[in-house]
């Protein structure tokens, strides 16, 4: 039976219906996005049946969509295992301890950005950085008489920057997987937007620090954290061997899975020296279930109780259902019908990128879910980047710049709600989250000037081969 083509009207109705289901489920009922995406997939499948697609064809579209996420799933699994071992062997405590040593009352806001950036980079989690070190920094800010909103903005700015450039971050790997590009190539390409935005934010915070200097900081809470970590863990540069190996291998363009595997071996070996009381069984338990800290200090225990393969399963399952939905969304022609209506606009490279920015922000604003703000625009606009002669890493960079980076600016989004609850601030923090505020303007500047944009026929080795479907770039 011959299938019908998805019409623009039908596709717009489907888009509105799916957005409503996702928005009501996530925003009103406050549920995780997994089941709402399954419901959206069912609705999409019904429309596919109306277009006379067979279940076998739709199933193949979903399997194809999920297959694109297999590299990311492998990477996230290794990351969960690695972080659990890092927490056990003292890598995370060492990095955090060194970060706390640079706290300066005269440059508190700048220091807050840097500390949270370091913690987020090494743990791959902006939420961990904000919910632990960030909480302690808020206490110092109150002691200094610095605005809580300014401090929260500095904390979020640093955490988002660190998370964005961390090969351990779920959203970083998700953006690379969605665009089908090597994660390290993706990170290197993001430096063009991330570094300028980060430096602009630091300059603004330096200016704010000089004009609002209160002096007399009470750093006792942070000092206590440092003392606790020093007494409970072996704080030594030896623990940095594993992350330095991963960074070095990434610089040499070694693929993520072998890089992480080598880093994991190094982490396990150093554990026998840095945590002499831990046996092989303890290491395997931390790798699977994560490490549970028991120092007696709540903020430290919260920071260091992390990692493990199990900690990644929720994110992995979300990637599977979201990519399956995206594969079906494209497979029955809805995405093509929507994009075809914009072909005249999307012929220019700048318009393709600006459309991505608008789409990512729109998903964030309507649904408040950063994973979907990466996956949905990425799958809908992927072909438009290739048609415009743009390398997939331009797409992956824009998905991060407008998806995960803009997400904290949505107070009703996941991170926004956590920031206001955990850091005990109002929506005013948004105006001081300079990393998020500045990044999209840099992205759009590059989009219309052509600076830093990589053509499709360059760096082809960084394009991930998804089962022989790698497009001809000659």
From TrEMBL:
Pfam families reported in the protein's UniProt record: Na_H_antiporter (PF03553)
Localization per record: Cell membrane
InterPro entries cross-referenced by the UniProt entry: Na/H_antiport_NhaC, Na/H_Antiport_NhaC-like_C, NhaC_Na-H+_Antiporter
Location of the Na+/H+ antiporter NhaC-like C-terminal domain: 158-451
Transmembrane segments annotated in the record for this chain: 33-53, 65-87, 107-140, 190-211, 231-250, 257-275, 312-339, 429-448
Alphabetical UniProt keywords: Antiport, Cell membrane, Membrane, Transmembrane, Transmembrane helix, Transport
Topology with respect to the bilayer: Multi-pass membrane protein
Similarity remark: Belongs to the NhaC Na(+)/H(+) (TC 2.A.35) antiporter family.
PANTHER family for the chain: MALATE-2H(+)/NA(+)-LACTATE ANTIPORTER, NA(+)_H(+) ANTIPORTER NHAC
Protein name per the record: Na+/H+ antiporter NhaC
